[in-house]
Design goal:
By secondary structure, the chain is mostly beta strands. The protein is built from 4 helices and 19 strands. The chain starts with 5 loop residues before the first helix and ends with a strand.
């Protein structure tokens, strides 16, 4: 770490100390002081307000009332000043602003009601950032509000549901809602982000003794700071996701996902990190097979694979931008872990391999780079957020221990390399670093003669549940450059990257 970031580190520590000490001394709204006994098990909770109301009146269980507040201080060195991964990542070129530190705050306010055949849910959100040097999404210039600022108040979710699966197999949910399937590797709510991801969607669910299935059609909602968020009328996302437990000791998911974006989808109005880069009609078919935990004891595993077809218009390739490229791409993931359930500290170790195909020939009329769709990539390819499941091999080692029931320590290591050096190194948001070619050694691009090794990342994360309503999480991540990064920036020099965050979450 360099000395120029000592002040942000101290600010992060001060934030955690203030939040922890204040909560410890007073509790919530007249409750007793917090029990900080690390080995005292926590009881299940749906939030402080729900717990309080339901303890006094059991009929209040039909209501879901609450407020969730999250504050996270992030420090990024040598990566993160111009977006969540960019062409300046790891650059040591004089004059390049490549360090960033900022405070993110998100508040979610919810009101829900569930009856026998009907449910309604409304959730408002305020997202703010302070000191962020990344480009904003509509905020006033110089405000320090980056792409994760979306205020002062917006509608996060608002939907109604009709149905009762105990008595009838069909149900329907209509309105603004989150979509989350599998591990969120292809479709997720992206809750790590200070804004998150929601869709204006219609979803039909069928559930019986053999399988459950969601069938949906949706439009992505685009964050627009200081304005009401609306969905992209030219970018449709639809699909079917089926789950069955009829195979002995296994759970099977089968899915079909379609993203259909017209040329107008590239500039629908609001400036947003979630807009589509070009027109496309991409169809994804896949399957996921995972262990049923109770049947396999201490072993957990899954495999996931998908193939994509359709068409993709690539604006970065002048020679073919006027015509549609044929989409031919695929991905594969395999994961296995073992947990010593009865041992002290409950240690867990695991290994995962992820592959997202790359384009072996950018000018042959085919697009072979896997489309990552709408994932929560933060959970999978390194906490520092430098990569996505596109043109990527990622070998991940992970382990965790619980020294106390309320304290979890996680350690991960990633080895990453390009699937094909004829394609780009893609950011966590799915954007290219560089175009077809860059002047050798001066920036990212397609340079088949370079090494394919992107680098290695180590992540250390600690999570402490102070009470059922308060948690603190801290992490340190370091990315070691590989030959591809060093070769791409050889003329302007490069440096390894560090990422530190400190997060507190309160659930009222």
């Amino acid at each position: 770490m360099t000395s120029r970031s000592s002040s942000p580190y101290l600010s992060a520590v001060a934030l955690a100390a203030a939040l922890a000490s204040g909560a410890t001394a007073t509790g919530f709204a007249g409750t007793p002081p917090l029990d900080l006994g690390l080995d005292t098990p926590l009881r299940p909770t749906t939030g402080y307000f729900n717990d309080y109301l339901r303890s006094d009146d059991p009929y209040m269980a039909a209501w879901n009332l609450g407020v969730q507040y999250r504050a996270r201080y992030e420090i990024k060195e040598n990566g993160g000043a111009t977006g969540a991964g960019s062409g300046t990542d790891f650059s040591a070129k004089p004059g390049v602003l490549n360090d960033n530190s900022y405070l993110l705050q998100k508040t979610l306010i919810r009101v829900g009601y569930t009856a026998q055949w009907f449910e309604a849910f409304v959730q408002a959100r305020n997202s703010s950032s302070t000191g962020d040097k990344r480009p904003s999404t509509g905020a006033l210039p110089g405000s320090g509000a980056g792409p994760e600022s979306d205020g002062p108040l917006d509608l996060q979710q608002a939907y109604i549901g009709i149905g009762n699966h105990k008595e009838f197999p069909f149900s329907v949910k209509l309105g603004r809602q989150e979509l989350s399937y599998g591990e969120e590797r292809l479709v997720g709510a992206f809750a790590w982000n200070n804004v998150g991801r929601v869709f204006d969607a219609a979803k039909l669910r069928w559930q019986n003794a053999w399988f459950s299935g969601d069938f949906f059609s949706s439009r992505l909602v685009l964050p627009d700071d200081n304005n009401f968020n609306t969905s992209n009328d030219y970018d449709y996302f639809s699909g079917a996701y089926l789950t069955s437990k009829k195979l002995p000791t296994l759970v099977t998911d089968v899915y079909f996902l379609a993203r259909n974006a017209s040329p107008q989808a590239t500039s629908p109005g609001p400036r947003s990190p979630f807009t589509v880069g070009s027109a496309r009609d991409i169809y994804t078919v896949g399957a996921r097979l995972l262990s049923a935990t109770n049947d396999w004891g201490n072993i957990n595993f899954f495999v996931d694979g998908a193939y994509q077809f359709g068409h993709y218009n690539d604006p970065a390739i002048p020679t073919v931008s006027a015509r549609s490229l044929k989409q031919e791409a695929y991905m594969a993931v395999a994961n296995a872990s073992y947990t010593w359930q009865e041992a002290a500290f409950t240690p867990k170790v695991g290994l995962e391999y992820c592959f997202g195909s790359g384009d072996s020939n950018p000018t042959d009329g085919k697009h072979q780079t896997f489309e990552n769709l709408f994932p929560t990539n933060h959970k999978f390819y390194g906490f520092a957020d430098f990569a996505s499941l596109q043109n990527l091999h990622d070998l991940r080692f992970f382990s965790s221990i619980k020294p106390y029931s309320r304290l979890t320590l996680l350690a991960e290591a990633h080895l990453m390399w390009l699937a094909d050096t004829h394609d780009n190194f893609y950011t966590v948001t799915g954007a290219r670093r560089g175009g077809i070619a860059a002047t050798p050694g001066t920036g990212y691009g397609i340079n088949p003669g370079y090494g394919s090794a992107l680098g290695a990342e180590t992540d250390l994360v600690a999570t402490w549940a102070l009470s059922p309503y308060i948690s603190i999480e801290a992490a340190y991540c370091h990315f070691f450059r590989g030959s591809y990064v060093k070769d791409s920036l050889s003329s302007i020099k490069s440096q390894d990257a560090d990422y530190v965050y400190l997060q507190t979450q309160l659930s009222f």
